[in-house]
Design brief:
Layout lengths: L2 H21 L33 E4 L6 E2 L2 E9 L3 E9 L1 E3 L8 E19 L9 E7 L17 H7 L12 E2 L4 E5 L2 H13 L5 H7 L3 E5 L6 E8 L3 E3 L2 E4 L1 E9 L7 E9 L17 E7 L2 H4 L4 E2 L12 E4 L2 H14 L29
Antiparallel strand pairs: 1-17, 1-18, 2-16, 3-4, 3-11, 4-10, 4-16, 5-15, 6-9, 6-11, 6-14, 7-8, 7-10, 12-13, 14-15
């Protein structure tokens, strides 16, 4: 047995213990060198008292984008405080692929629209299943940079330029009851007109295509009394196991083709508002867009400079009433607070945090909500 080996191990262990013991006794002075920082590089910290905002205005939203890549929305709600608010939607119908052959002697059998429900919004729970007439019309022209904001169609001139709500393009008047999906048939007259436009359209350019086929506009009746419902539907085309299962329009027709002695039944699929045509080698669908507009009865009182809030601040959805705090008032408060702190040069100030506190009034039991 080699006792020298154990002796060396013992000495190494002892040395290790000494080193560990020495390390554990080192004190770190975190303030060392603190007095060497130049005084012009030190910050004075001030926490000013909260100041009241004296003029919060309630105004209509004028620059809120109406475009959505996920949902299209239509419906109407009436309540005692805000009056009637109406939602409507517009989007193009674009062939799933950019190569279409309608053959000869094309005869329309059906042009069907279907979309899957996303969310319903109501004031009263009993209106979740209420019946709403759905009005579908054809856009007069493609939506362009004139129509960017949600409240665009509250302008009578813009509305007249783009919408043709007097001419419905469905078989009868579709009725929606808040169910899982929205489904209706386009009229034969619209379907035939649509096919002729698609035949003439340039399927190599989306901009040129929508000049010929601008799209459709969907809205609903106004509520007869207080209440109503806003309906939201999925926009993106749905697939399951490689098959299209929702959010599309299907054109079924019969036509003559050179490869068959008998007329052939076939169909084409159209999806809603894609930004570009599908490429034959694409592995995913392009981004889709819908323009969701809103109009509000409150525009009569709250347009322009709006109304100064008193004890309550009203907030409305869509392009309705929103609170507005002008930068001039915030600047006035900052100037007063800097003057109270003895600060003469605002360029030397860094605002680390500023908070606007708006207390929220909840009707009923807050915890239950």
């Amino acid at each position: 047995m080699n006792f020298n080996f154990f002796s060396r191990v013992s000495r190494l262990a002892a040395i290790g213990a000494i080193l560990l013991g020495s390390a554990s006794c080192v004190d770190i002075n975190k303030e060392l060198g603190g007095n060497l920082i130049p005084t012009d590089q030190k910050w004075d910290v001030f926490t000013p008292e909260a100041a009241d905002l004296k003029e919060i205005r309630m105004q209509m939203s004028d620059s809120l984008s109406g475009y959505s890549t996920t949902r299209f929305t239509f419906g109407a709600i009436n309540d005692s405080r805000f009056g009637t608010s109406v939602k409507s939607t517009s989007f193009t119908l674009v062939p799933l692929y950019d190569t279409l052959d309608f053959g000869k002697n094309t005869k329309i059998r059906q042009f069907h629209f279907t979309a899957v429900r996303d969310t319903l919004s109501v004031i009263r729970e009993e209106h979740l299943k209420m019946l709403q007439n759905v009005h579908v019309s054809e856009l007069k022209k493609a939506l362009d940079s004139t129509v960017l904001y949600m409240g665009a169609f509250m302008n009578p001139e813009i509305r007249a330029e783009y919408l043709d709500t007097d001419n419905q393009i469905t078989v009868g008047t579709p009725v929606y009851d808040g169910g899982d999906s929205l489904s209706f048939d386009f009229s034969r007259e619209f379907a035939e007109r649509f096919v002729e436009k698609v035949k003439k359209a340039d399927l190599d350019s989306m901009n040129l295509y929508i000049e010929q086929v601008p799209g459709i506009y969907i809205t609903t009746d106004l509520p007869a009394g207080e209440g109503g419902r806003i309906n939201m539907f999925n926009l993106s085309i749905l697939t399951s196991d490689g098959y299209v299962s929702g959010n599309y329009a299907q054109l079924k027709f019969t036509a003559e083709y050179d490869y068959s002695e008998e007329p052939v039944d076939t169909s084409f699929l159209f999806f809603f508002g894609p930004a570009e045509f599908m490429d034959d080698e694409a592995t995913s669908y392009p981004t889709q867009f819908a323009f969701n507009a809103s109009s509000h009865e409150t525009i009569g009182e709250y347009s322009g400079e709006g109304v100064v809030a008193t004890d309550k601040i009203l907030i409305e959805g869509g392009s309705g009433i929103k609170p507005v705090i002008k930068a001039t008032e915030i600047k006035r408060i900052l100037n007063e607070q800097m003057a109270a702190a003895g600060i003469e040069d605002p360029s030397e100030v860094v605002i680390n945090k500023a908070t606007i506190i708006l207390p929220y009034s909840v009707d009923g039991n807050y915890e239950a909500l």
